[in-house]
Fold Calcium-activated chloride channel regulator 1-like.
Amino acid sequence: MGSFKSSIFILVLHLLEGALSNSLIQLKNNGYEGIVIAIDPNVPEDETLIQQIKDMVTQASPYLFEATEKRFYFKNVAILIPEKWKTKPEYVRPKLETYKNADVLIAEPNPPGNDEPYTEQIGNCGERGERIYFTPDFIAGKKLRQYGPQGRAFVHEWAHLRWGVFNEYNNDQKFYLSNGKREAV
């Protein structure tokens, strides 16, 4: 399982509206494959954003591996870039990946100034989320003080997306007692 740094990344050129609306994620030999990260067409062209996305996923993989007691890691990710960005030889056309079935969306903050990462969850606790949202400034590391390292935040949001984990923050009571032991909320 020592292949964190050899994760495969595919760059694709177009954001196509396809018939698929479900995620392409599969778990094979403990590695998540088929994760689609799409850059919104309204995000200005920035080549460094692609490398920053790769870095985030590469940093997140060992966090996920440790958090899941060495069960899961990120094996490969497809990054969809807007059609209006410049063409490059290393970009390939998407096969099944579409903007509609993207698991992660990189988009400008809405409302402006709100760079908080979040996962759209419309179901109950334990039900899979819809999509993770990050902003370009978050991906670029400009929000480290507010939200922490991008890789850790990605794993946090991944728990919302894949397993339907809800946030359980309590600013008034930071700890609770469990079997006589003090536990963090």
Summary: Confidence is low (pLDDT under 50) at residues 1-21. The chain has four helices and eleven strands. The CA atoms of residues 16 and 98 lie 5 Å apart.
